[in-house]
Structure formats: structure tokens, C-alpha cells
Amino acid sequence: MVKMFYEADVNKEVLNGKTIAIIGYGSQGHAQAQNLRDSGCKVIVGLRPGKSWEQAEKDGFVVCSVAEATRQADFVQILMPDERQAQVYRDEIAPNLKPGSTLSFSHGFNIHFGQIVPPADVDVVMIAPKSPGHLVRRVYVEGFGVPSLIAVHQDHSGQAHAKALAYASGIGSTHAGVIETTFREETETDLFGEQAVLCGGVSELVKAGFDTLVEAGYKPEIAYFECLHELKLIVDLMYEGGLARMRYSISDTAEYGDYSTGRRIVTDETRAEMKKVLREIQDGTFARNWILENQANRPSFNARRRLESEHGIEQVGEKLRKMMSWLNKE
Ligand code: NDP
Ligand code: MG
Ligand code: MG
Fold it and tell me: Is the pTM of this model over 0.90?
């Protein structure tokens, strides 16, 4: 059974009087920094000059360079984009990391794939909220917290786990529950989920459905509603009560179509390909490709981004979303 931790399991004293440096102030950084501060922790923010720096100061934080924040910190939480972390770690964090301090992440990529190799005299942990940053903050402000995963990669102090749990409590996660994992499990499942299901799988499914309808002569506007817009309504139901709640809420005709057709779309061939995708994550093929892609200044990534933006579903979507005033708030 999976190990779960709650507020009663937390020993807050392990972070008492400690300085936490949040490196990066984007989606996760702004949320984790503010939650920890509101929980009574001493938080500073490490950044380069720019947009995020201004925002963090506006939010009332002491902001300094990554090197200086690391020097002052007992607990360093790295919340920069994953593909930037290795270089900033090498140049600014490693030379300033205090012996006995804790180096921490919200995703295991750089540790698991050996892009960051910490010294032996620090703890290395992960606290990974299972939620986008804005929700990490919003749910905390409402008096609760989002679930998180925690993991220990290296336990120099003998207190690595307790510190990770105290941090998780500071961002609110012990209200919801904290699940123990490993860097390997978190990294591989996170990459697999976003590639096969959440991002890659869903985007292609939506486009394939849209293209099929449009090529058969149906109006792109109608195809957009059926294949993209309504997805949110379905996913909301799954999120609230699993597949059963979604199937309870849809018509019996839709439910019959679900059972009779779903497996003709996600076929044995698709499942075999999913296994291959997982193997390429496990054996480092995906990580190597993404690291090299970044070193080459992202030629495939940039080209693909442009091509995707030119797809018909994006053109018609832009027009249709203007009709839905409640979507244009931000
Ligand atoms: P963002 O892209 O939102 O934030 C990046 C931040 O890093 C910005 O404040 C940026 O500042 C700063 N930054 C970039 N380069 C540097 C640099 N060279 N020196 C100093 N600061 C720099 O990142 P996320 O919050 O999305 O991701 C952070 C971590 O959290 C990742 O490990 C990710 O996998 C993990 N995670 C993210 C989730 C999410 O919902 N987004 C969910 C769970 C985990 P500037 O304005 O100067 O560019
Ligand atoms: Mg991810
Ligand atoms: Mg319908």
C-alpha cells in the first residue's frame, strides 16, 4: 500500500529558524514561496534580474541573485524550468551550497537523469505538488492544500524525510495528503502521463476527431464544439467522480458508444506504442533527445510549435472563443 502522510505526521521543528530559498518565481515558485511565508517560514527568492524579480519584490519578498540566495539558505527549492536547472546549478548553486543544507525539487528529471549531481554532504529531496502553481496558491488561501508527492534521493542529515514533509506542510499539502514516492517513479510516470495521455495523447485525439469531421464536410465550428470544447465538461466529471460519474451523467446512448467504440480508437497497437514510449522514457532516450534539443536551441520544438498553431482547429477556436465572453477574462 502507498504511504500517506498528514498534518499529524509533521515535525515542524526541523525547519524552525531555517531560511528557505525559492529559486525561480514562476508557476510553482510564486505559489510555494507565498504559501510557506503564510505558514510562518522564512523565505527568500533567488532570481536573475527581470520580470519575475520585479513580481517577487512586489509581493514583498527579499530577492537576490541565485548565488546569494543559495549562500543564505538552509533549504534550496529549485523551481526554474527543468531544462535550465543543470546550468544554473553548475554556475550559481553548486559553488554556494552550504554543507548540511537541503537541495530540493518539484520534479525529479535532473537528478534522475544525472544532469545535477549534488555533493554528498547535503540532503536531496523532492516535494512535487500534483497541481499547477495557481491552484497550489488558491487552494491554500481557501484554507486547504493540494496533494503532493515527496521523495528522498539522499539523506545526509538523517532528517531528509522529516524536512521534506515539513516543507510539504508549509505549502499546505499535508491537509490533503502527501504520498511517498521515489525520484525515479515520479520522473518516469510524470513524463509518461504528459506524453501518452494528458498532453500528447489528448491533443492528437482532439485533432484527429476534428480533422475526420471537417474532411467529411461538417462545419469546423461544429467539429470544434464536439471534439474540443466539450472535452472540459467530460473531464470535469471524471475529475470529480472518476469514469463512473462521467458515465452516470452522460446519456445512455453516449455511454453505449463509449463502450462499443473506445477500444477501436485506443487499439492494441496504441497500447503497444504506449509501452514503447514508456521504455524510451525509462532508458533515457526521451531525456537525451530533449537535452540535445535544448543544446541546439530547440529547432524541432520551435518548428512544431509553429506548425501546430497553424492547424485549423486553432483558427476556428480563436473565433469561437470570442463568442464565449466568460472565457475572455484573462
Ligand atoms: P516556470 O517556467 O513557471 O518558472 C520559471 C521561473 O524560473 C521564472 O521565475 C524564471 O524567471 C526563473 N528562471 C528561469 N531561468 C532562470 C535563471 N537562469 N536564473 C534564475 N531564474 C530563472 O516554471 P514552473 O513553475 O512551471 O516549473 C518549476 C518546476 O516545478 C519544474 O521542475 C517543474 O517540472 C515543476 N512542476 C511544475 C508544475 C507546474 O504546474 N508548472 C507542476 C509540478 C511541478 P524569469 O522571469 O527571469 O525568466
Ligand atoms: Mg511534467
Ligand atoms: Mg454530444
Answer: yes
Separation of alpha carbons 186 and 113, rounded Å: 12
Distance CA 61, CA 52 (A): 11
The answer to whether 133 is annotated as binding is yes
User: For atom 37 of ligand 1, which residue has the closest CA?
Assistant: 28
Confirm whether residue 190 is marked as ligand binding: yes
Q: What is the pLDDT of residues 281-316, one digit of tens each?
A: 999 999 999 999 999 999 999 999 999 999 999 999
- Domains along the chain? 4-182 (3.40.50.720), 199-266+297-327 (no CATH)
ipTM for this prediction: 0.97
Tens digit of each residue's pLDDT (9 = 90 or more) over 213-223: 999 999 999 99
Give distance in angstroms: CA of 226 to centre of ligand 3.
Answer: 6
Spatial CB neighbours of 72, under 8 Å, sequence gap ≥ 6: 19, 21, 44, 64
Q: Is the CB of 132 under 6 A from ligand 1?
A: yes
User: How far is ligand 3, taken at its centre, from the CA of residue 294, in Å?
Assistant: 41
